[in-house]
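Field: COMPLEX_INPUT
Field: COMPONENT_COUNT = two
Field: RESIDUE_TOTAL = 945
Field: MODE = joint
Values follow.
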Amino acid sequence: MDRKGIQQIVYQISTVTVLAIIVGTAASLAAIGFVDAVHYLNDRLLISPYARVLAEDRPGFVAVATLLVPAAGGLVVGLIVHFLVREKRGLAPPDAILAAQTSGPAPGFGSGLASTLAALISLGSGASVGQYGPLVYLGAMFGNLAGRLRLNLRHQRSIAIACGVAAAISTAFNAPIAGLVFAHEVILRHYSLRAFAPVTVAAATGYIIANVIFDRPALFLVSFDRVEHSYEFVFFALEGVLCAGLAWVFMVLLKVSANVARRHIALPWARPAIAGLTVGLVALWIPEVLGIGQETLRFATIEGAFGIGELGLIIVAKLVLTALCVGFGFVGGVFSPALLIGILFGAFYGLVLPYVAPVPHSGLVVYAICGMMALASSVIGAPLTTILIVFELTRSYDLTIAAMVSVVFANLISYRVIGRSLFDLQLRARGFDLSLGRDKAILETHRIRDYLSSVFTTASDQDTVGTVRQRLVDDHRSEAMVLNRKGKLLGVVRLQGIVNSNAETPVMDAAIRSFTTFGEDTSVWQSMEMLRGFLGEAVPLVDRSGRLMGVVPEEAVIRAYLEIVHDLREEENEAA
Amino acid sequence: MKQRSPAVFQWLVIVVLMFPAASQAQSGSQEPEVLTVVTWGGAYEDSQRRAYFEPFTEATGIDIETVHYDGGVKVLREHLASGDVEWDVIDMIQSDASAACEEGLLDTIDSTILAPAPDGTPAREDFMEGAIHRCFITQIVFSTVIAFDDRAFPGVKPDSVEDFFNLEAFPGKRALRKSPVGLFEWALLSLSVPREQLYDLLSTRRGLELASRRLDDIRDAIIWWTRGDEPVELLTSGQATMATGYNGRFFHARAMEGAPLSVIWDGQLIGFNSWTILRGTSQADLAADFIAFATRAENMAAQANLISYGPARKSAQRRVGLHTDAGVPMRPYMPTAPSHMDSAVIRDHHWYSQTVELREQWFREWLER
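Field: COMPLEX_OUTPUT
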């Protein structure tokens, strides 16, 4: 290798490493700050049980706070989102995925900050939403910022975004391997060494900051010895299947809730306040629905903490209120609620199981954890990540294997019924369909217009066949576009159709009226689909009023496809 | 002459002997010479007597009287309500001190009275974090631990909080302090709740209910105690096989008196004792002088060499060595010994001071149900 090549490689590796450390540090510190700020607000606003019990001597005050804090929080969130976020909605992991996958414009830093603030207030005031979605976006935001630096690195933006996300997850869960895998599984959707190396560095940075510098406690701590009976794996698999069903219910509720909000509440900024008020009302009766529910999560793994009926009630309340809060525009994720609902459902399953199958089993903990991970993995479409979270948090091999079985069965079903994840569903609604893989989704984002050719033969609708025939022979083409005076495309004349026609015939009599055209917005993917059975030389591309803008030769479509797919394959197979 | 001289001599002796006493009595009528310290009795008070009270009297000529105290804020309220304030200095549990301070029952203490460490380190850096407060000066780290009668379990010995609740494997009565302190922490610990989350869970109805149900498991086996020296008695007399109590008392019984008991450090509940001055005492300055004296590094170390409570200042911790009488090395018996800290629960004194009502109500209800 020559000297310049070596210099280039040294530059690449060192720049990308420094970039990963910087993005990782920023995302990790931001994540810690975010989580601490949520705790602070929860304590101040009487959302956390600890704060509520300290105000025990003033029960009226606590009740009023319960009722008003989420509603007031909702109002503030509604106003922030409506007036400060350009997209007029909370920014979330789908935005991170889109920014990493495509080269289009990503939401601005200002919008990102406003959205993060809205998420902070949502979580701080006890809305039933999750914290990991906003954290992922926070990481992506720093990545996006770093992606704009002129460092001359290939795929700089997507790698930097993945770094930010990996560090945020690594910090939040205290689970660097899960952070690393999450960034690949959900954000990048491929595993090239070029991305893998810096993302690992960022995840490790997040872990070091969370653990060594700040010494944060683990998200959940359980003790579990081992799965006692081999037949229990059948129960784990069945639990996974049931969780997929629950995930489906969750998604349906989310959709219904969003539709109800759109249809019945005209003012978008008022919607979260209404959801907040509902949360407050329910919380007077079931305080477990407030906020992230760290304590409830913990109780779910303790035998005897809940009765079966109580569990059922809390599961339903949490499901409905989470759908309500997210659908009505509180800013926050669905992962933590899914973890909570999942662990409660797992505990429920573990309690009911002895009645259904009266054989000995290994206790509540393993079923609770299985439920938690099965439901959450179906919702966010990250089976590997969730399995690794269990492993990294519990360091229990048995627990991980049990969870793995549930997670896989849940995903097998939910993938068919719902799709890969909620994120992919949301992206599909925005026209970015990842359900058939990256190729299709990326090909959909490129317009065939970019491959337009202005070299073609035209004919006027007043021309005769003879004139057009002569023009085609002169131009060495077999197709002419017939336009009216205003440039509107009326038809296509093919040489083979007019070889023996009378020279005096008006050209319009010989023109083909029904033919394939591309529009301004036709994507590369659509153009490939439209070319099925196409026999001509080039496809005319018309604007919305039907005027001809140019033609796209068949060769250009193939070229576009090859270029894009080649780029993707290169990205996926790049070494560091 | 020979017969009279002894009489004169006797007179002389009497006069000479009487004079200083008379002068002391005179000055005593102008300035009180007795400081009343409210503290916990038993081996603990003995250690304070030897390390603080006697040296203080020696240095200043002021006697110290003690009044027995078993913790809580209520007795302070009652004493103040009686109108006749006799207590000066109180040795309180930090959470009680904090609650009493908020209620306005305590005088403020000027932290500049605290002597720097012998090497010159300012007191603020030498004391543990949070030890210096406007109402109290935290002096020792004590721990409430579970101990068991070694004779009761000749085979496998209990070694965890869970074993305390396991009447099948470790039968016998359980001695517990009759107070809503520590009970619920141990109840949840025995259900393997991580100690980081104890107080968050105990802040919920569900957490307290869970603790109640756990305590129901041993309800019939409980013997209640109130005075700090009772657990040792209950164990040595064979009335109880396991007991909770202050680590220093168990140490004293084991190391000094050879009582056949062992301490389980799992789930030890770390607390802090603090010196406070009762509001309304006429001897606030003297009380402050005493606190300044008792918190000097060498005096704190002297106490730690008598009973296994950890001093709250670093310079004193470094001076802890062998027991003054028995010659036993004291450091392994300190609650703060690194091997004991792995499973220690640091009592959340903020939570404690804010939940007095709640805890008492919960305890009453549990006792009645």
